[in-house]
Design a protein that fits this description.
The protein has a single domain, classed as Orthogonal Bundle (Protocatechuate 4,5-dioxygenase, Chain A). It has 8 helices and no strands. The mean pLDDT is 93.
């Protein structure tokens, strides 16, 4: 899992307008050169923030994607999907 790459992608959408526009136009092509696993690519392209969170991505950074409706994520969609996630910290606390 390259959690860092996903978290960096989220941060880059905030700070890199050219990258953000590329993601808006053609998400699959924009993220193709990034060091992501196939599962991460699939989760990003389908807006599966619950899976990404469960595998270590930061929910605050993932929420950046909603600012521009990237990967089909609006604020309401993000909220609905992230609420379905299991917090990985719950499993390690036991």
């Amino acid at each position: 899992m390259s959690v860092y790459a996903v978290n960096k992608l989220c941060r880059d959408t905030l700070h890199d307008k050219a990258f953000r526009e590329a993601v808006k136009i053609d998400p699959a092509t924009a993220i193709a050169p990034l060091d992501l696993t196939d599962d991460e690519r699939k989760a990003l392209l389908t807006g599966d923030v619950a899976w990404l969170f469960e595998h270590g991505c930061h929910p605050f950074l993932l929420a950046y994607l909603t600012r521009w409706d990237l990967f089909g994520l609006t604020a309401p969609v993000y909220s609905e999907r992230i609420r379905k996630a299991r917090d990985p910290r719950d499993e390690t606390a036991a």
